[in-house]
Predict the structure of Glutamine--fructose-6-phosphate aminotransferase [isomerizing].
Amino acid sequence: EKGPYKHFMAKETHEQPIVLADAFARYLAPHRSEVHLPEEVDFAGCERIVMVACGTAHYACHVAKYWFESLAGIPVEIDVASEFRYREPPVGPGTLGIFVSQSGETADTLAALRYLKGRGGRSLAVVNVETSTIARESDVALPILAGPEIGVASTKAFTCQLALLACLAILAARQRGAIDGAGEAGRVEELRALPGLMATALTLEPAIAEIARDVSHARDVLFLGRGPMYPLALEGALKLKEISYIHAEGYASGELKHGPIALVDEAVPVIVLAPSDALFDKTVSNMQEVLARGGRALLVSDAAGIEAAGAGAWRTLAMPRAAPLVAPILYAVPAQLLAYHAAVFKGTDVDQPRNLAKSVTVE
Ligand code: M6R
């Protein structure tokens, strides 16, 4: 039941600190700063990883691609399941397929899994529903432990998918000798800090709701991010489209001047996801391009980022400071709450948006 919340989406958004802590209790060793999985996953012998999913689960794969590549040095290909299954991609025994699905029943993701298995690839399922078809048909299945997700818009499943994928990337790095004990301990402690950071981010809800009131009047919205914040920009745009029916697009910040900047005027809010990290200055220079054209930019960063670059922005939102590994998980919160409150202001059906089903079991 919804408890004190008006919608399942709100309840599920607010459950994130608890379910993430539960997931880490399962996937991190209790008294050591190490990843510890209940089932063996072998990354040592894999030549490449292909990650296949749909919608929000695909964006989780997109974030994880950065982690597997930068932490473990494994080449990763990502694809949406409806494309993967029909383009006849080469697959061999050195290919590890990771199939990410909340429901575990998404038709295209299941078909992609069957395609990979039929060609001799190894398969790992990352699912919420442990009894699902995708879990049963994969060589190994790991649950994200998010608990039931009722709202059509995926929230806690996304962040729990990311949490488990981060653990897998750390494990892969260890197995391939790309990280030492101290490095692993550092990353694990960053993960352990995440539930507390999520709880802090959720306290920003009144400020986010204020911004959402303005955003709810927009016809078009752009989301920008670089590196692992690029898939977060895509996810923020998807959430907004899905439940508020506002047209939104996510772009890699560096792509702005290759087309989308033509859309920018004072009527188009541009939401810039830019934690203080190695790419911060680059993203901010893209934000300046928006401002120079009369655009309205919302800078979502931490206090240091806002201090450095907030002047001139239309609005700012000060997030807790987070390590680069966990920032993409943390920044899901403002993306979710912005979409949620924009939808509430518009009066749309948040939990059952028009034309959508929770689980897409047909092609
Ligand atoms: O159950 P799955 O994770 O396989 O579902 C995939 C997508 O249909 C799903 O993430 C969809 O994009 C969400 N409604 C987005 O909020």
